[in-house]
Amino acid sequence: MNETDGTRLENPARPRNQEDPDFPIVSRLTAALQASGSLKGKTIAWHCHLTLLTELAARAVVAAGAELVLSECNPATTQMEAVENLQKMGQVFLGENSAVQALASKPDILADTGFVLIPTYLSSLPHEACPDIMGASEITTSGISKLRTCSRSFGFPVFNINDGQIKSLIENFHGVGDGLLEALKLHDALAPQTQVAVVGYGKVGAGCAHYLKASGARVAVVEIDPVASLLAHFDGYGLKTLEQALESSRILVTATGKAGLLDREHFLMAADKLLIANVGHLSSEVSPQVLESLCERKVEKSNGLTEYHLKVPKPAGEKPGSRRISLLTGGNPCNVALLTGSDAPTMLHMTTEILTWDYIASHCRPGKEERLPSGITGERSLPPDVETLAARIALDALGYQFYA
User: Residue 364 CA to chain centroid, in angstroms?
Assistant: First the structure.
């Protein structure tokens, strides 16, 4: 089930449907996949953000001879122009049942975003192993967290792309951080010395804090893990509790991937004119339905920004107060919903994702000497060879041909 309010947004920032000449990675990825030949004839169910960058990456997969079946992971990040173009390459399903519809294609490989496709597949089968799936991949922090608490046994490996170096250190850190900064600048929300709090100091939160600080903002970090908190301190950030951050910040950035991070009491204690921007995978991280329930009036502004006017209870004898809280892109990941930031980190993580499928097709097929042991289950780390190849392809696209 999609973690979204079902709203479809316009994507005003740089709608692209052609390869960026500054980072021509798709042609090189296509050549690598065709040379391998492993994806030819394979069916891949891909639960993902349906954007023009996804369309660009999909071209390489189709050119390699694979059949793509795509399902929508979040309506708020879907670009209908991309959907129309993707429908020329394969099947595309939208809506809450999109994962179920995609699985009807009997795929060989599952490519997940947020751990939706895999549990949907498992729930449709008996409890025992699933021998018809070669393998799967997951690219999000929230998805990996769900994978690790899943009680079902698997008959196939699930490759953790999120914790690989390219996804965590480039896409999560630089890609999301840069995208957040551009999303906030669309609304003129950042001025020098703006008080900003970043909730969560994983790679995504650390990247957001880094880019915000570089822009001149005064950045504090909210983090419950002592080790991550200590790292944030030595990276130069002050530490606050969530309550302190809500009461003193102009902007609150959420980057935990934890559903229900914000709730009723948090909105009622927040500073007037607080802007909330989520970059975690789940819109439920910031509980937009709760904010809606507290709202007496709301104003829709440009580029997916909504200002909520709340009634705030006061002690007996005092008049009720009012408070304005702005929420960006309905709580959906603002960098994806607005397609902000550099394309290169996103295209690089998609390249890594697609090369992982190629690895699955090559190593999990019966008869291959290097196939994965039969019966292997659950999470597996990303093979180093996959990231090495992705890095070589990217460096070649960047003009460093001596790495090719």
Answer: 27
Q: Of 312, 337, 362, which closes a domain?
A: 337
Q: How far apart are CA 113 and CA 120, in angstroms?
A: 12
Q: Cα separations (Å) of 253 from 80, 183, 209?
A: 28, 12, 9
Say how far apart CA 103 and CA 275 lie, in whole Å.
Answer: 39
Identify whether residues 326 and 198 lie together within a single domain. Answer: yes
The sheet carrying 305-312 orders its strands as 238-239, 218-222, 195-199, 251-254, 274-278, 321-328, 305-312, 295-300
Instruction: Identify the CA nearest to 25 among candidates 349, 361, 383.
Output: 349
Contacts of 47 (CB under 8 A, 6+ apart): 70, 71, 72, 73, 98, 99, 102, 110, 111, 112, 113, 114, 116, 117
Tell me 373's DSSP state. Answer: P
- Residue 172: inside a domain: no
For the entire predicted model, the pTM comes to 0.87
User: Could you say which of 311, 337, 363 is where a domain stops?
Assistant: 337
Q: Does residue 368 lie within any of the structural domains?
A: yes
In the chain, the number of structural domains is 2
Phi, psi of 8 (to 5 degrees): -105, 130
Residues 145 and 110 in one domain: yes
Q: How many other C-beta atoms are found inside a 10 Å radius of the C-beta of residue 258?
A: 18
Q: Where are the alpha helices (DSSP H) in 43-140?
A: 52-63, 80-86, 98-103, 117-123
Range of the domain at 315: 187-337
The confidence score (pLDDT) of residue 330 equals 94
Structure confidence by residue, pLDDT tens digits, 321-374 = 678 999 999 999 999 999 899 999 999 999 999 999 999 999 875 433 344 444
- CATH code, domain carrying 140: 3.40.50.1480
d(CA 80, CA 97): 18
* pLDDT at residue 75, as a whole number: 92
pLDDT tens column, 253-304: 999 989 999 999 999 999 999 999 999 988 999 999 999 999 999 999 988 9
Residue 231: what residue type?
L
- In whole angstroms, what is the distance from residue 112 CA to residue 175 CA? 19
CA separation (Å) from 397 to 176, 245, 393?
Answer: 21, 42, 6
Centre a 10 Å sphere on the Cβ of residue 95 and count the other Cβ atoms it contains: 13
